[in-house]
Please model this.
Amino acid sequence: MTTKRLILAPLRGFTDAVFRNAFQRHFQGVDEAVAPFVTSIKGRRIKPSHLRDLAPADNRAMSVVPQILSNNPDEFLCLANTLFDLGYREINWNLGCPFPMVAKKKRGSGLLPHPDSIDRMLEKTLHGFSGNLSIKTRLGRFSGDEMDRLIPVFNRYPLARVIVHPRTGVQMYTGRVDLEAFDICLTQISHPVVYNGDISDLAMFQLLESRFPSSSGWMLGRGLIANPFLPEMIQSATRIICHRNTRFKKFHDDLVDGYRRQFSGPGHVLDRMKGFWFYFAANFPDGRRIVKRIRKADSLDRYRHAVTAVFDGQDRWG
Ligand SMILES: Cc1cc2nc3c(=O)[nH]c(=O)nc-3n(C[C@H](O)[C@H](O)[C@H](O)COP(=O)(O)O)c2cc1C
Model:
């Protein structure tokens, strides 16, 4: 079995430490995760609660790379060095977040039309940080042409790798991934390049792998949440996975237990689990109806009831 480097994508509100640990207990095939972003903050003191998801004791199951959302080199360095002191050797800089509230403040994908600001930021941060820095980027904020000015900037600095999600910021998560533009990134970026975007089944992965054999890794987000068996399928190049329904149910129950320990009230657990079903439902034959039923649950007991009906009934997984 050849091993492909598979990386769990950061999805805020989904791929936190509870998810990462539960995933590792029940599934195989993922090498590491980039954690959802933490924002840099003014001032020198960073409260432990700001970094709760990255507490080393809760992140032993899987190799984790923290991600920072920032456009301020001093704040970035303060946070990056705090994370370095906690034991993290690579920090990822978020240059992809598409949300207008973030982008308008020149953060995430909002920085992409400003390669000079990115240049200054890299110059300053790499000077004061002794760990490895990687970047997760889109093709641009408004247009893929922005990459023409970004790639020379990326190539001037010793980055550990560049993860490319080949959409623009204004595309958000819709429309086509631009594989021609990814091809250009792969050829022109002088650092290891990781592909990210729309890997939702084995066929899509195999198509991408044969087209981009020099990609240094593959990052999976929504496709992995919807189908956590996907990394095993990719690693073993088969769609046949035994005991899916039972294994998925155990994973699900483990998630609920994890969030019950983490959150103070059942309402938060319920909200979080309802969020997951938006993705989980894709792999159940009658997913829409299931989501409707689960959304109606107004207590954890009712939620459990609805979910048991899914796992025991006709709508079983896969
Ligand atoms: C709900 C949600 C939250 C996300 N949070 C982050 C984040 O914190 N940091 C980041 O770099 N990307 C974030 N992303 C983008 C994903 O990491 C990934 O780039 C995107 O979903 C495309 O990959 P996929 O098609 O495999 O999901 C988020 C995406 C979604 C849908």
Notes: The chain has a mean pLDDT of 95.
